[in-house]
Design goal:
348 residues; alpha+beta; 2 domains; 15-stranded mixed beta sheet; 7 helices; transmembrane; transmembrane helix
């Protein structure tokens, strides 16, 4: 929910950076870089009143493109810069510019953009300090993100180190397919958490859409558990309540519990909301391989664990799960647990 709303907001901001409108854009064409910069900032203020934004430089190049350099956006409720745009290149419709002196934005390319989303200790996010933009009727341009990064920062108070997840080498392409709809495709890499590919669509007006993707080369182990509990204090609390009954002891140096499980995983997922009256529908299919499980309650460790786990709105299914210890092997054909049972047990 947070990422979706922030994405919508950032998209409106990025578009407003370059849409100056009508003959005023042609007037800026004939003026200095300072005049162009001042004109863009004025239009942004009209479109997003109260936005804390700074631009180092803006200019037209010889190909009638707009180049914006060193653009930074901040919020009133956090000191970190939420959006840092080293370079924005905007392609204009040259025919409309020459014949009618009209600004028609065809494509926006963001080079090395950085988006930093911070959840503060009180549970609020830095993006909540952004002012509301005024809706624009201008047509959507194509939007391309090259070598971008998205950092999710989870603060836990002044005495604790925040948890940070950074998506690197983010390449994303948004292609307009209607008055308010974008087709989306992209990929990124996550340190210690594999590679992520996504595709789908999103309608800005109806807030309906669908996205699917694949998360590959994900390693499940103590590092991932530590990362997950650092993001969700509620998850950490639930695990700490459950672990004593599982006869697990925390690591003395880190205070974290080791589940005794490690595995390589490939995850296929989908998330959609196609009607306003319906709840979002999701499905996650996990392929396990090279798994290991060591637990005090087991007489011996299990190795070479393989299988599939399917989770959706209605159930959890374990399919073709196999484990080995030497010449001994175990197999589980299929087991299904309903979502209501998970809610009753406090897992959902």
């Amino acid at each position: 929910m947070v990422v979706r709303k922030t994405f919508q907001w950032c998209l409106l901001i990025l578009i407003s950076l370059v849409i100056t409108g009508g003959s005023y854009g042609y007037y800026l064409w004939m003026r200095s870089d300072d005049m162009i910069k001042a004109g863009i900032l004025e239009k942004i203020e009209n479109h997003v009143p109260g936005l804390m934004i700074d631009i180092d430089r803006a200019q037209f190049d010889f190909r009638r493109r707009v180049r914006i350099e060193g653009c930074r956006i901040q919020t009133v409720n956090h000191q970190d810069t939420i959006i840092d745009l080293p370079e924005v290149v905007v392609t204009l419709n040259q025919e409309k510019m020459a014949r009618h002196q009209l600004i028609d934005v065809q494509k926006i390319v963001l080079n090395r953009p950085q988006l930093v989303l911070v959840r503060m200790a009180d549970g609020t996010w830095n993006w909540e300090g952004l002012p509301e933009p005024i809706k624009s009727d201008n047509p959507l341009p194509e939007l391309i993100i090259e070598r971008g990064s998205l950092s999710l920062k989870f603060e836990h108070g002044p005495q604790n180190v925040p948890t940070v997840i950074t998506l690197q080498n983010l390449d994303l392409r948004l292609i307009p397919s209607g008055a308010s709809r974008y087709e989306i495709e992209g990929h990124t890499s996550i340190p210690q958490a594999g590679k992520l590919e996504i595709a789908g669509y999103w309608d800005l007006d109806s807030k309906l859409g669908s996205v699917s993707g694949k998360w590959s080369q994900l390693e499940f182990g103590p590092d991932l558990v530590r990362l997950a509990t650092g993001i969700s204090p509620e998850l950490e609390s639930r695990l700490k309540k459950a672990f004593p009954s599982l006869q697990l002891q925390p690591n003395q140096s880190t205070g974290m519990y080791d589940l005794g499980i490690s595995a390589q995983m490939d995850i296929q997922f989908s998330l959609s909301r196609l009607r306003r009256e319906e709840a979002p529908q999701f499905q996650v299919l996990t392929h396990l391989r090279e798994g290991k499980f060591k637990h005090p309650l087991l007489p011996f460790p299990l190795r070479n664990i393989v299988g599939k786990v399917l989770i959706d709105n209605e159930s959890l299914q374990v399919q073709n799960l196999q484990a080995h210890n030497g010449e001994t092997s175990f197999a589980l054909g299929e087991t299904i647990t309903s979502a209501s049972d998970f809610r009753r047990r406090g897992f959902l």
